[in-house]
Every structure is written in structure tokens, then in C-alpha cells.
Amino acid sequence: MTTRRKTKIGDRNAALAVVLFSLRQITSVRSVFVIMLLAMSTTASIGQSKPFKSLKYKFHHHEGVFYFKASGVLARAALRIAGEREFRKAIRQVTTLNFIIIPKERFEAENVSVRGLKNVVIEDAYQPLMTIVDRGDEVSVYMKEGKHKNKNRYFLLIDSSEEVIAFEMRGFIDPGILRNSQLTVNK
Amino acid sequence: MKKIVAVFVLVAVAGAAYSQDAISKFFTKYQNDESFTQVNVSSKMFSLFTNMDAETEEDKEVLNAISKLKGLRMIMKENTSDARTLYKEAYAMVPLKEFEELMSVRDKDKDLKFYIKENAGKISELVMIMGGADDFMVMSLFGEIDLKQVSRIGKRMNVQGLENLQKIGDDDKKKN
Predict the structure, then answer these.
(1) For the segment A19-68, what is each residue's pLDDT rounded down to a tens digit?
(2) What are phi and psi of A166, to 5 degrees?
(3) B41–A186: do the CB atoms touch at under 8 Å?
(4) pLDDT digits (tens, 9 = 90+) for B54-105
(5) Which of B26, B72, B76, B94 could be cross-linked to B137 through a Cys-Cys bond (beta carbons 3.0 to 4.6 Å apart)?
(6) B35, B44, B159: residue with CB nearest A183
(7) Do B38 and A133 touch (CB under 8 A)?
(8) Helices (H), strands (E): how many in chain B?
């Protein structure tokens, strides 16, 4: 889940590369389909949480910022093409996804801090699930329980040296599949 | 009146500082060191597992044990030449007034030490310190801990080292 990359953010292609990396290093030919599917999915009706909306409105039009939204169906289709069976299974009951990548310099230019963003996330009734810090990159995972389990919200925040990535999902993620994929860092 | 308030505040602050145990000091000392990997898991994460369906009786027991956990913290360093030094530093920091050594294991080139903290006959914290030739790790698991289930939890959550606790159960069986 780390975001160590050598790509320079500042153009759309680099941002797309980050997305691909986050979807677990999808192979090059398949990634083209993934991008197309995700790009086409912007018509999906998405309910966004307060922290995500704040980020979107503040940074959406900034240069170097990459944003997309997708329905769960399209994301699963993309993951099927990418061969990401386990991850696809985990998001089987996810209805919507939102993703934003903000270059660190844009973040700092707007006087926004990751710490402040985390406070907004907590104020919006998200509960921290786990944090992983690996070689200076920090991944924080939050969850807000909905009235029904398929209305849960998950917020994933990646703070790396080059950019801040926020990833929001609505629906239900099977903790059993998360369990199988997490905490393997000490292996 | 102000003096009394000030004294109370000082006492409270001193108490809070004292209650931060040695393992927390270790985590604090290296939290900004980028060569370490750190993992924090909250009680909320553990509570999510309680909603899962248990297929077997063993699964049910493990999920029940997981639901009683309040958190997990790990700090580790891989491919390092100072793993042994860190290992010694970490176990020297364990306050033996509060923690009791549960077991020590030497597994190939790795040394492991397990410490437990008990409150009212229940284990409230388990600390595992591991030092190898080039790997080091400290793990603190807190909440209501069932030692019999910890090795199974470790297996399910891929936490290396915890499988050694199974030896306790095996020894008990042999005695019986």
C-alpha cells in the first residue's frame, strides 16, 4: 500500500500511473482498459462525505490534481480485467468509489495539513481502523458505519513525500478478506 | 487557591507521564524514524471481525477472542545491522514491575521474548520482542487477551512470531 514512486506529479499521465500503482501494479495492457473504464464511470451518482467534498472543492481545479469517481460495478469490472481477484471480492458490496491525488506542494500551498484533514475525517464521525507508517509514507484507514452495513463508508488517506491520496468507498468491505491481506508487513 | 490547582495539575501531569510505560517510550522514541515500519490497529478494526460468520467452533473462539482486543501496535525494522542492539534496548525497557516474562524462544537466528501484564487475573497486555540477525520487531497487543487464542489470531492476521505461543498450549497438554 505504500506510494513510493519516481513519477513526477504534474501531468495527468503521472497521476494515472499512481492510480494504477494503487490498484496493485496492474500490468500495462490491462491498465489501459482500467483507465478507460474508470474514466467512463464519472457519470455515476456518488454520495461523498464531508472530508472528501472539502478536498474536492479545494483542489479539483488545481494543476496536477487527479480526481475520479466510479461506481462499484465499474471498479469491480476494472479489477476483474486487472486480475485482482481478492481485492475485487473484498469490494463486492461497494457501491461507489471516489479517488483524489493531490501533489504535496498544492496541499501545502493551500495551507492544508494532513493532520488537519484527519481532524475533519474524525469530526465527520469516521473511526480510525488502522495506520501503517512505512519509510515515511503513512496510510490511515477510517470507517463510518451506516444504518445498514452496505451504507458503510471507508476513507483511506495516504500521505507520502510527493502527494496526498484520499480514497473513499461506500458500501461494505468484507473484513475477512481485509484480514487476509493486512499486517503482512513483518513477513 | 491557584496554588492548589497548580499542584493538582502538576500531580496529574506527573501521573500521566509515569503511566506511559517503557514500551510506549520505545514507540515514541522511534516514531519519527523513517527506517522503521509502524502499524497501529484500533479496537474498531477488531470489532469488525465480530460481524463475520464463523464456520467452525474454532473460528468462533478466535473471533470471540479478537472481539475482546482493544488494539495492536507494532514497530519493526528490516534489513538492519543493529537488530540485536534494538532487541536488547527494547527488552531492557520493559518495566518488570508491571510485566512478567512469559517465555523466551530462540528460533534459528531469532530471539523472541514475550511479556504479559495482568490486571485482576486477566491478561491486559502482551508484548512480543523479536530480534534476528537483520530483523527487529516489537509488538504490543492490548485488551482482554486469551493466550490460548493468541497464536491462532497471529496466524490469521499474519503476525510473525505469535505462533510460538502455541507452545504454551502444547506444554499444558503434555503435562495433562
Answers:
(1) 444 444 434 444 444 444 444 443 333 467 888 888 888 887 888 888 87
(2) -115, 135
(3) no
(4) 777 777 777 888 888 889 899 999 989 999 999 999 988 888 888 999 888 8
(5) B76
(6) B159
(7) yes
(8) 7, 6
Please list, residue by residue across B71-85, b when 16 or more beta carbons sit within 10 angstroms of its beta carbon and e when fewer do.
bbbbbbbbebeebee
Structure confidence by residue, pLDDT tens digits, A11-22: 444 444 444 444
Contact of A150 with chain B, judged by CB distance below 8 Å, is answered with: no
Going by C-beta distance under 8 Å and a sequence separation of 6 or more, which residues neighbour residue A44?
A69, A70, A71, A74, A96
Tell me if residue A48 falls in helix, strand or coil.
Answer: coil
Is pTM beyond 0.80? Reply is no
Number of A to B CB contacts under 8 A, please give it. Answer: 71
Q: Tell whether ipTM is more than 0.90.
A: no
Q: Which three cell numbers stand for residue B27?
A: 514507540
Residue A181 or B53, more confident: B53
Mutation target vs B (from A2, A3, A121, A130; most B CBs, 10 A cutoff): A130
